[in-house]
Structure formats: C-alpha cells, structure tokens
Amino acid sequence: MRIASFSLDGQTQRRVGIVHDLGDAGSLRPDSRIVLIDITSTRKNLESPLDVIKAVDQGLVRDVERAIRRAPTREIEFRQLHAPVQHPGKFLAIGFNYRAHAEEVRTEIAEHPLFFNKQVTCVSGPSSPIPLPAGCTMLDYEGELAFVVSRRCSNVSSGRAGDVIGAWMVCNDVSARDWQRESRTVTMGKSHDGFGPIGPWLVTRDEVDDPAALRIETRVNGELRQSGSTSEMIFDLGAQLAYLSARCTLEPGDIITTGSPAGSAQGMDPPPWLKVGDVVRIDIPGVGAVQNEVIDERRRPGT
Q1: Of the four, 51, 65, 91, 142, which is 20 to 30 A from 220 by CA?
Q2: pLDDT one-digit tens code per residue, 4-47
Q3: Is the pTM for the entire model greater than 0.85?
Q4: Domain at 91-299: CATH architecture
C-alpha cells in the first residue's frame, strides 16, 4: 500500500488515503492528479498514515481492508499531499554513508555509522517550499531513502531490520552548510523549519522488492545532480538499525534517513548553492518523489 496524508481544497483537516490510481501522476508533478481511497473516519484506530502502518504491523490487516471497502474515492492534486508523518518522536539521519559522497567532500570513511538528529519541527510536505533563511548563503540538498519505524524496539539485530521497518519514503535532507560549519553540532545546520521535505506517502514493505537496490536521483531545475543506488551504502539498513537501536529505544513514527549519494552542492567546485526560485526534485522509483521550490523565508506561511 501507499498511504497518504492529504487535505481537500478549502479544508484544513488532514485526511488519510490509500493510493488507488496514480492517473497521470507517473511523473508526480505538483499538478498531477491522484485517486485516493479516503479512509478518514472509517475506523477510530486509522486516523493517520502511521496508524495504518501500525495496524499492518500488528496483524490488523482486516481492519484496513474493511475501511477500504467502506470508503469513498477522491481525486486530488499532488500538491494537496502533506508530510505522511506529521510529528515524529525522532528524526535521525546518517552522514557520509556513500563512499563517493565522503570522498567528494574529503572526509575519511567512518568506522561506525555517523548519526545526527534533525529537529522534528523541520518536517514538511512533498511539495512544500524550502525556505532560504535570512543570513544563510550555503543552502544545500541531499536526496535520501528514509524509513519509518513501526514498533517500539531496542537492540534489534541486523537480520531483524525488516521486522521494525514499517514503510519507506523519500526525503530531502536540506542543510544550511554555513550554519553547520559554525557549530560543533551538525544539527544546527539541519533543523530549520522546512528542512525536512518527506513523502510523498508511506510505502509498505511489501511494495519494495529490494530496498538495497533502489535508484536515487536528485535534480535542480531539471539538471541531474545526484544519481546513485542504495546498494552503494557503506552501512546497510540492517547495520544502521542495529547500531541505532543499541543506543536508544526507537518508537513508532521515528524517521530514519539512510544517507545520500555523491553530487550535493558542497562537493562541487564552485558549489552551486540553492537560491530563491530553484526547484529541487528527488526521485526514488518504486517509492515516489518530492519536489520543492526554494523561497525567501519571509514568504513562508506563518512568518
């Protein structure tokens, strides 16, 4: 299943939908039309995409099937989708997990996974704008495969990773490199509001044959910047999950991004930092895409 969070035109309520037909959305552009089965309010235990993932994890597939049978369909535009996980408990990301990326920025290959956290308020939707903060002159992108934890767990062995990964999605790990460099904590350059576009929906495990063989491509204004495969990870998914869960308890809804291939702006000479008006698109075939325009922070709603 592909489980989405969306809203109807003119309404603020976040609804839950199962993707039924991508229609003309094979390219997943902001104006693409998508048909969803709207299971909102069909069952009290299925009020968010994460609720659906937890129900599947707990063997309550029949609850989901009953909700789908009773629900109406809705046709929406891609831009009506929201972040499929709104309030994760943790947003954890790994650095330099692709050899070519580590080499392009002249960083030694780490002996252990290098994890940092993005503050959860950075989460934004698959077509939400990326704000360029005042004073930031080194805005960067990184296309990544992300997964969502489906159950509370600790000390998970690498071979049991599949037991606690509930779903896959696409992530743009946006960074203010100048803020990152002025602080000893990577988090400071990773956590601004809007620096975590995710989506476009949650893709359940059964939809992805081999998560270790997925293409990741990032384009800026249509120009290919990143092209890699999850097969190139230094620390595979099992190793990442085993390392993290041995050091902190993971809980349902936690987001973990798994690293980015070579081609980020910081690895180029001169670096083509993102500027207002740039459009960043990240595609992972079989999972989906996010596409976000860079705007002046002062234009962001709520500022």
Answers
A1: 91
A2: 999 998 898 999 999 987 754 456 777 888 999 999 988 888 99
A3: yes
A4: Alpha-Beta Complex (3.90)
